[in-house]
Amino acid sequence: MGAIVCHDCGSGCQAYTWTDGLHNSSGNPCDGGYWHRKSSHDSCCSSNCSTTLSFASGTSSITEGNSGTSVHTITVNRAGYTSGTATVDYATSNGTATAGSDYTAASGTLSFGSGVTSQTVSVTIAGDTGNENSETFNVTLSNPTQTVGSASITGTNPHVATITNDDTSNILFAAGTSSVTEGNSGTSTHTVTVNRSDTNGTATVDYATSNGTATAGSDYTAASGTLSFANGEGSKDISITITGDTGNESSETFNVTLSSATSQYGGVAITGTNPHVVTITNDDTSNISFAAGTSSVTEGNSGTKTHTVTVNRSDTNGTAAVNYATSNGTATAGSDYTAASGTVNFANGVGSANITITITGDGTVESNETFNITLSSATSQYGSVAITGTNPHVVTITNDDAGGGTTTTLAATTTTMGVTTTSSP
């Protein structure tokens, strides 16, 4: 009979060197060279020589990345009896992630040497820029073994790994600004394009207009709503109604603002310039012109008098101004009229203004004479302005002196019988 020896299986299992019908000769030894007595101690020995294999946690996650690959490691722990060698098989399987595009399928066997209590499973993750939901795959343990005693799998199995989506679909205006010509009547439609950077799945974004210098109701029609992008659709248009008019004014603006974006998959953000600014370009012109292309004034015989020439404008919205200057025709400044130059100013709402020229009278018989008044450098507070019609205006100074001169006729002399008679014709 051999001596009683206490082994690693625990003090409850007493080992002997002999074997007979009273002792276990068919089970695994708790340590080499000894068999264990058939008794209640067998269960003690079996329990103390077992090992358990389990995932360190039931779940894990890894950020997907935008390109290339990364490696995700999942830890498997060993507990209990660890003096012998243990093994366990593992294999990945799809959850919502797909092997080949989202991760690389992996399978194999983890081997734990004596005293080793953890090993890792490595899985390759494929990065992409596609906006999508976070996706999962599974790692399952099977076929546990141990060279001494028993082995079993405990805890959560399979382990669930989440590939966390880090891509964001950006929703933004195609351009930060746009413009539309106002038109002179009726309405027109202006479209503003909204794009998204990723077309995977559906997405929505709200929009609303707001006044800048333009006024909803008179310059454009206020609009609000939701743009809905179908799967695969990358652009949508917002349509705004523009009101035409003939009033000369500055170009005016209104805003279109995006808000409350949603995406079927992954994250979504409103980026770029927001709000978008629309300019309603004024296409009306205020025309400044002489009321008539010509005028006339009677010269007078002495002193001076004034002659007025009227300048009109077609649109009275805001202020306007135009320069003027006289120049000689056949009349001469200084002797026939007084040269003049300056600026005609139109107040808001005023459509006509006068230029006043001083005319010099004389008693000289002469032909009618002319001088010119020319407009230049027109400006307007709102919109554009043009000088139209006849320019320069021609003023005629009409001669009012009587024609003719003194006519002299010789007298006839007749002598009759010493009497001389003189007669005039």
Would you kindly provide a written description of the structure presented here, covering whatever features stand out?
The protein has 4 domains: 1-49, no CATH class; 52-166, Immunoglobulin-like, CATH 2.60.40.2030; 170-283, CalX-beta domain (Immunoglobulin-like); 287-398, Immunoglobulin-like (Sandwich), CATH 2.60.40. The strands form 8 sheets. It has a 5-stranded mixed β-sheet with strand order 5-12-10-7-8, with no helix packed on it. It has a 5-stranded mixed β-sheet with strand order 14-21-19-16-17, with no helix packed on it. Residues 1-47 and 404-425 have low confidence and may be disordered. 2% of the residues lie in helices and 51% in strands. It has one helix spanning 41-48, and strands at residues 5-6, 14-16, 35-36, 51-55, 59-63, 69-80, 86-94, 107-112, 118-126, 135-146, 151-153, 159-164, 168-173, 177-181, 187-196, 203-211, 224-229, 235-243, 252-263, 267-270, 276-281, 285-290, 294-298, 304-313, 320-328, 341-346, 352-360, 369-380, 384-387, 393-398, 412-416, 419-423. The chain is built from 1 helix and 32 strands. With 425 residues, it is an all-beta fold. The radius of gyration is 54 Å and the shape is rod-shaped.
